[in-house]
Amino acid sequence: MDLRLDAVSVAVDGASLVRDLSLHVARGRVVGLIGPNGSGKSTALRCVYRALRPTRGTVRIGGDDLSALTLRQSARRVAALTQQGGSDLDFTVEEVVALGRAPHKRGNEPLTGAERELCRRVMDRLDLLRLAARGVLSLSGGERQRVLVARALVQEPEVLVLDEPTNHLDIRHQVEVLSMLRDDELTVLVVLHDLNLAAAACDRIGVLHQGRIVAEGSPGEVLTAQLVRDVFGVEACVVAHPVTGSPQVLYSLVSTPEGRWT
Amino acid sequence: MIKVRIVFNVGFTSNPPNRTGVPYAATGDPVSVAAPSLDRNGAIGPDGNGAAKRRAPVAGLVAVLVPVLAVSAVLAIGLGPTVIAPGDTARLLWAAVSGGRVGADEATTYQIIWQVRTPRVLLAGVVGAGLSVVGVGVQALVRNALADPFVLGVSSGASVGAVAVTVVGGLASLGVYAVSAGAFAGALAATALVYLASAGRTGMSPLRLVLTGVAMSFGFQAVMSVVVYFAPNSEATSTVLFWTMGSFGAATWGSLPAVAVAVVVAVVVLRRLARPLDVLALGDETAASLGVDAGRLRTGLFVLTALTTGAMVAVSGAIGFVGLVMPHLVRIMAGAGHARVLAVAPLAGAVFMVWADLVSRTLVAPRELPLGVITALVGVPVFIALMRRRGYLFGGR
């Protein structure tokens, strides 16, 4: 299923967080959202997983207007990995992963054998089986992040949205999580801070600045020294990866005077 | 883009085949990881830190707690100023339930058992069960470990209602239940006030709910103090003591049905909400992405817990500590999942309260110690010991 944001605007208490955002994620593609802190990336994602209702505009999944679906219906089609995923309660890894099935179940209906097997497979894939009985509060940040990825995959969504999924992950697990997004048939919208990982992992990249999309296209088209300077206020040069050819951004530790305050 | 994928995968395909059967850990080096991972699974770990959680199976806990509760109840009914042997207690109880005959020589004993102690012990069990499940519900509602059934201002509202009825009079048509009715009305009024004050445009935020409840409690206590201060008789003072420390001294058969129904409804409803409660614990954002409307669930929980708490406070006063600590004790034993917690919590709460009440009325007989004193004196050390022993985690290391 494809994901389409159509002229989405979000205003909270008069402050405009996202303005007129239109973005299309074709079926099975990975689209990245990049931009400085406070540029509206997370707000845009929250409209997709329904933590927020857009003030104007629509979000469509496979042509269906999200706001016409119940929360449960849309949760069966869209899974999210949010920034705020923690709990005070010391659930086990197994329990948290199994909660991914919640939108497919009524109340306390127990998981079927097939669903348990699905949970086991996903945990295996994310190297979590040996942690299955551990309490999530005793895990490292990286392990916890993988638990949340597993929960999202167990949800068996058509569309997966991720808000900085590589947070707290060591480089091996960053690469692993992102390459897994690519291997899967999922339609993915992902917010990433690391421009080089975004260039390697995404088919297309949208750049947000002050709530607006200021550039959109393939990583090669979007990631230029000029854009990095304009949007992030950072001096950089962009080179081609010697093996893959994808653009790589190299930074110098000097901020540009004109970009710093924008 | 396919090229990218191949480059990414080099790191994993170059691993030697996994012969140990132990899954590779984060570093991808099976040799260095195999030993500590055994440790982490709790198999050979020297301490509890980081070990797999050792939890008692729920069915096992229930299978133990049900007979323990039954035996506790019979013992508690037999014990008091007049000690009745457990065998005689059970026989007389059976006679009462089955409509059997009781000899004339046993008429007094029977009166004590059936008219005085049985309703009291049953009420203790019902309220203990109720406080402990409502504690679980309120902690989920406000996502706060320090919350208990009274944090939303319900108990102090009930006290104001009860004291007002005692001092001012009114509700005379309700006879002996007038004070309870006043307490319940006070609880409802407090609930409505807290709800209106904390419900905002963006729904009820957990933190705002707690803060409003705590602030309102102070307000109600001030009102109560003023009423007591100007009250013409000392009856008001003892009423206040009863409602703030809690007691089952006023238990009668008549006071049982309403609160029993409320508690059973709360247990059943909360049990059915176990999975949504788990989801709610992950935060409102995550709840939305898992198809749970946190705002609606929270409103429902608020109404359910407030009504149940009001019904309990009206018959027993505000018995502290149980609703705060029982949920944690049960989580230590059974794990954090709400389906497990809510199966065990009512039984554990009932057993605890039956014994606490027994101690309160026998320790310095014929006087009664306030129940709140017992629950705190017994529960606090037990709780702290358990928490330290099992490496209990709540809200992080």
TrEMBL record, chain A:
SMART domains: AAA (SM00382). Pfam families: ABC_tran (PF00005). Signal peptide: none annotated. It comes from the Bacteria. PROSITE patterns: ABC_TRANSPORTER_1, ABC_TRANSPORTER_2. The keyword tRNA processing does not apply. GO terms for molecular function: ATP binding; ATP hydrolysis activity. Residues 3-235 form the ABC transporter domain. Keywords: ATP-binding, Nucleotide-binding, Transport. This is ABC transporter ATP-binding protein. The lineage of its organism: Bacteria, Bacillati, Actinomycetota, Actinomycetes, Jiangellales.
UniProtKB/TrEMBL annotation, chain B:
The keyword Transport applies. GO terms for biological process: siderophore-iron import into cell. It is a multi-pass membrane protein. Keywords: Cell membrane, Membrane, Transmembrane, Transmembrane helix, Transport. One of its GO terms (cellular component) is plasma membrane. The chain crosses the membrane at residues 58-84, 121-142, 149-168, 174-197, 209-231, 251-270, 301-326, 332-356, 368-387. InterPro entries: ABC_BtuC-like, ABC_transptr_permease_BtuC. CDD domains: TM_ABC_iron-siderophores_like. One of its GO terms (molecular function) is transmembrane transporter activity. The keyword Transmembrane applies. It is found in: Cell membrane. It comes from the Bacteria. Belongs to the binding-protein-dependent transport system permease family. FecCD subfamily. This is Iron ABC transporter permease. It comes from Jiangella asiatica.
